[in-house]
Write a structure and sequence with these properties.
Length: about 550
């Protein structure tokens, strides 16, 4: 795994050496209202790997303080994603575990004159807040007595008020240049059933209030988050200080990682699913971890990709194809390399016996002998890729099959095309070839050189297969398309389905198995694949221009 060197690690090293902390404890706090995407993977991997550098711990804490869209489906999916990435949290807990304790902290702030119950509507609260250039103004309810605020807050908890009728706000400074410090809302009323607490609560803490408290309760030392929370840090520190918490955590921010032709907004991803623009959260075109996994990306590839991109204080963008590089690096020595023909052209070996099939030895992976060998069928009727044949060799660089040209069939024999069969439209539908039995692969034959090597599958033993080929689901906005919504920028050709054949050895393939289909690309057996109907997803092609070492 790539070595970790970034400014957060430097901070941790300094904090340990100066005795500010005695151990490193981080946390990953997802809200269980959606499936995790590759942006979340960046947070997970850095949270866990940074802590691991110092033999520290990482907690998984579900931020379930907004019950509207939260549920066990997402909780289970997130736990499974972490397991797939190879991480075991120090503890698994929920923000709702701390509801009583959080409520007590709110009461403390009320008693200290630092919080009040407000009757302003959401629209009025926004209007009173001011702008970046104009200070806000105090709510007319800001000077309620401590006793009145305690009474109203207790009644809020008992359910005496409607949704939105009242809020609990911190009393800080409505003229602060930091808008987040202008009496932020700490609690709102929501008469919604909670996925774990049921109807026990009808008031729920806001993230900015609950998060620093929960970090403190758990002993978190370094609370890592994305850069948009930079101006929330003063509020984070204010709540920790004013609640007189014995453990003081600290928040640190890093820049977001954007990926070309990829959206990572939970709201937009939900819109894609609910609008049936995709087949679900595990659609292989989605940037969700379940989608990437189904497409064929491995946890190791994603980890290396994330660590390669590093961390900085500024937002950055990387090309989506860079992830492909790390998949190739991970699988080039692991994946077996069978043959698959996606666009078949029938070949008849005219001088080969009818009804005979011979089985030839072939390495599973020519770069890794430890994977052993397999048997490849050869017979009178074969399939090759249509693009591997032209009627007339166009130039010296053409290293595939043409009429009156001889090539090697991979792991088999030399064959020469003698006749081309066309349909009534002039399309080539079949070619007739002869083979040279002296040229068997591994025989040492070297009397002449073929015009290249192509792959094939034997027709009688081949298995029909469906291949899903993917392109970006969405195109990045350009000057010409920036006025369009992201739905209008969806790629209508993002999923192509082709029918072809694979060699017999794949008949019993299991879901999730990775292959490098020789001369074609990296593939993964799809969840819809059966013995009767094999289905493979293309993860990526064989080559790209990206190399992290250049």
């Amino acid at each position: 795994m790539a070595e970790i060197n970034n400014f957060i690690k430097t901070i941790m090293e300094k904090d340990l050496s100066e005795g500010k902390v005695t151990e490193i404890i981080t946390r990953f706090p997802p809200e269980p209202n959606a499936y995790l995407h590759i942006g979340h993977a960046r947070a997970i991997i850095n949270d866990f790997e940074l802590a691991k550098c110092f033999n520290g711990k990482t907690n998984l804490r579900f931020d379930d303080t907004n019950p509207v869209n939260e549920g066990e489906e997402y909780v289970n999916a997130i736990i499974e994603d972490l397991k797939w990435l190879g991480y075991t949290p120090n503890i698994v807990c929920f923000g709702s575990d701390y509801f009583e304790k959080t409520y007590e902290m709110a009461v403390l702030l009320i008693k200290k004159g630092l919080a009040y119950v407000d009757d302003l509507t959401q629209e009025e609260t926004t209007a009173y807040r001011g702008t970046l250039t104009e200070p806000g103004k105090n709510s007319p309810y800001r000077d309620r007595t401590v006793e009145e605020n305690l009474d109203l807050f207790e009644r809020m908890r008992k359910g005496e008020f409607k949704d939105g009728e009242k809020t609990l706000r911190a009393k800080i400074d409505m003229a602060s240049p930091n808008i987040n410090m202008r009496d932020p809302v700490m609690y709102r009323i929501l008469h919604v059933e909670h996925h774990r607490q049921g109807n026990k609560w009808c008031i729920y803490p806001m993230y900015d209030f609950a998060h620093p408290l929960q970090d403190s309760f758990e002993g978190v030392t370094h609370s890592l988050c994305s850069i948009e929370y930079d101006n929330h840090r003063p509020l984070y520190d204010w709540f920790v200080e004013k609640c007189e918490l014995p453990h003081v955590p600290h928040q640190y921010e890093w820049g977001r990682l954007n990926i070309t032709n990829t959206i990572m907004s939970k709201r937009y991803l939900r819109q894609l699913v609910e609008g049936s623009y995709v087949t679900g959260y595990d659609d292989p075109r989605m940037p969700t971890l379940v989608g990437l996994r189904r497409k064929g990306f491995t946890a190791e590839a994603i980890k290396e990709f994330i660590l390669y991109t590093g961390l900085s204080r500024i937002n950055s963008t990387t090309d989506a194809e860079n992830l492909d590089f790390f998949l190739r690096e991970d699988q080039k020595l692991k994946a077996t390399r069978p043959s698959a023909v996606l666009n078949p052209l029938k070949v008849v070996i005219t001088n080969y016996p009818e009804g005979q099939v011979e089985w030839l030895d072939a390495p599973e992976n020519m770069e890794n002998e430890e994977l052993g060998t397999r048997k490849v069928a050869f017979g009178k009727y074969l399939y090759i890729e249509k693009e591997d044949f032209v009627e007339e060799k166009p130039n010296k660089k053409w290293k595939r099959l043409a009429k009156d040209v001889e090539v090697r069939l991979m792991h088999a024999y030399f064959v020469k095309c003698n006749e081309v069969i066309k349909d009534e439209n002039g399309e080539i539908v079949e070619i007739h070839c002869t083979y040279d039995p002296q040229t068997k692969s591994g025989s040492g034959f070297n009397e002449r050189k073929p015009n290249g090597t192509i792959h094939f599958v034997e027709a009688s033993t081949a298995k029909k297969a469906t291949f899903n080929l993917f392109n970006p689901l969405i195109w990045d906005a350009t000057e010409e398309t920036k006025h369009l919504s992201f739905i209008e920028r969806l790629n209508k050709n993002s999923w192509e389905v082709v029918e072809g054949f694979v060699e017999a050895s794949l008949e019993n393939t299991e879901v999730g198995t990775h292959y490098q289909f020789v001369r074609n690309g990296y593939y993964c057996t799809d969840k819809l694949s059966t013995k009767e109907n094999l289905v493979f997803n293309r993860t990526c092609g064989l080559k790209s221009s990206f190399n992290p070492n250049n």
